[in-house]
Each structure stands twice: as C-alpha cells, then as structure tokens.
Amino acid sequence: MLIFEQVYPLNNHLKDLKKQKKSIGFVATMGALHSGHISLVRQAKARNSIVVVSIFVNPTQFNKQDDLIKYPRNTERDKELLKEVDCDIVFIPTVEEMYPNKVEPENIDLNGLDLNMEGSFRSNHFDGVATVVKRFFEIINPDQAYFGLKDFQQYLIVKHISKVLNLGPEVVGLEIERNEKGLALSSRNQRLSVSEQNEALMIYKSIAWAKENYKHFSPSEIKKKIHLDFEKSNLKLEYVEICDPHSLKEISQWSDFKEARIFIAANHGKVRLIDNDRLF
Ligand code: AMP
Questions:
Q1: Quick check: 177 and 39 in contact, CB under 8 A?
Q2: Contacts (Cβ under 8 Å, ≥6 apart) of 19
Q3: Distances in Å between the alpha carbon of 272 and those of 135, 138, 235, 236?
Q4: Which residues are catalytic?
Q5: Model pLDDT, residue 128
Q6: 119 CA distance to ligand 1 middle (Å)
Q7: pLDDT at 56
C-alpha cells in the first residue's frame, strides 16, 4: 500500500497507472474509519484494479469550529485497516496541499440540492464538500468514485457536480452499513457511550416504523408522529423530511411522486447523527 501526502507525486503515479489502462476507484473519507468506510473500499476493490482512499478532515465543510476540532482522528489505525483490505493507495494531504491559495469554498452551483436538510442546518456545508470533491477528482481523476448513501444529499450533490462540471468519474452510491441493532455506522458514534448508542437507535427505529407504516398515513402525519416520539426521548430532533430522491423536493402527497425517501438528523448531546432510507 502506497501512502502519498503530496499532490504532484500522487498525480504522476496515477498518470502512469492510467497509461497502463488500470481502472481507478476512489473513496473519499475523513478518517476515523469504521466498517461503513471499509465496505466502500471492498466494493471499490471488486470493481476497479486500483483503489485510492483519501483521509482528509476538510475544514471548509464544517460550520462549527468545535465540531471540526472534536472530529475523531486516528490515522495510524486507519492505515492498518486499509492495509488489511488491500487498499492500493492512501492519500493523506495537509490543508495546504488541498487549499494552496485560500481555505475557502468555491462558488459552485448545486442546482438547489443544498437548500434543505443538511444544507439548511449546516450553512455552506455543501459548498465545502463540492469544493473538496472537485479538487480530489481533479487530482486523482478516478474512473469511479464511491459514496455512501448514508450521506444521501452529499451523494446527489457530488453526482450533480461531476456531471455538470464534466469532472469525469462515474459517481456510485453504496448502501448504508449498520451495526447489529440497526444504528448507521458513523465516525461520530465513537463519541457516544454504549447506552447512548442504544438510545440513538431511536433514529433507525423511527425510519423502520415509517417504512412499515407509511401507506396508512400522510407524509405530514408520519413526520408529526416522529416529532412527538423524539420529544419523549433523550435525543433532539433537528429534522425529519420525506423527499423525492432525485430533486430532494419535499413530498406532501404520496401520489405526486414515484419514489420517496425519509431523512432524519438528530443530536444526542453534542453528537450529531443522520440516517435515511427508501420508503418506496
Ligand atoms: P466520512 O468519513 O464520514 O466523510 O465518510 C466517507 C464516506 O463513507 C462517505 O461517502 C460516507 O457516505 C461513507 N459512509 C460513512 N458511513 C457509512 C455507513 N455507515 N455506510 C456506508 N457508507 C458510509
């Protein structure tokens, strides 16, 4: 497994591999790796001859300094986990390598996909995501880039910018990995005790309930019930939304849409968790 910290050596190495007609798969991460990340790497390995994983806690996508500082970091363990799954290349750049001029997001048109949910609760979050992903795509020039559906809005936005800016890679969305009880794996789970993680299952249970029962209720009734359930819990609900999975438009009547997805964000103390799933 090769480790690069600088853009130019990595870029040159990848150009050589491209000349040898190797297909390049890319997985972007912020480190503190868990089985969710590793499942993306495994699936990339199955589809590409070379897999590049980046580990970079991107400052421009954090709107709260405290969240950026407290974001878990464990690079040595991350490298070991990646070696175990035969990752070919790890890219661990510094902030200066990624942002040689200004540590600021670019102004990229996100076609309104950033207006609700994560976009409205984390201002400029997706400008930062789009900026860093664009830079990674330019440096790595992958054939495929794999993103987890756990961050569904991010996946849609990356797919959109890759297409409209003609960045090159096919953007592939991969299923959410969960623990044995259903909690979506997240680097932020490390900041929760076992009993807090069990309480956080409330998010998954609400989604599972909606999946099973949506036919008997309107979207607003589903959302109201989930709001009431959270009021009785230790978690603070930030939003529950039911949206079209292509435009992210809010669904107020099932019959107006062919597909629907439910999205939840909630805080357990200072730890912010998100999850989502397809209703139909
Ligand atoms: P992060 O390190 O949180 O930025 O995540 C890096 C990539 O891993 C993103 O594409 C995430 O959507 C994906 N990811 C994170 N958690 C999971 C999970 N539980 N299942 C599947 N993919 C995930």
A1: yes
A2: none
A3: 27, 31, 10, 9
A4: 37
A5: 98
A6: 17
A7: 98
Closest Cα to residue 219, out of 182, 249, 246? 249
Supply 276's token pair. 């989502």
Query: CA of 123: how far to CAs of 39, 72, 111, 191, 249, in Å?
Result: 29, 21, 16, 23, 19
- Token pair of 195 as six digits: 């009993």
71 lines ligand 1 (CB under 6 A): no
Q: Pick from 242, 241, 247, 236: which is nearest to 273 by CA?
A: 236
Determine if ligand 1 sits within 6 Å of the CB of residue 122.
no
Q: Is ligand 1 within 6 A of the CB of residue 44?
A: no
Atom of ligand 1 minimally distant from the CA of 32: 2
pTM of the entire structure?
A: 0.97
Angle formed by the axes of helices 7-19 and 125-140, to 10°? 50
Residue pair 70/107 in contact by the 8 Å Cβ criterion: no
10-residue stretch averages of pLDDT, the chain, 280 residues long: 98 98 98 97 98 98 92 96 98 98 96 96 94 98 98 98 97 98 95 96 98 98 98 98 98 98 97 97
What pLDDT shows up at residue 123? Answer: 84
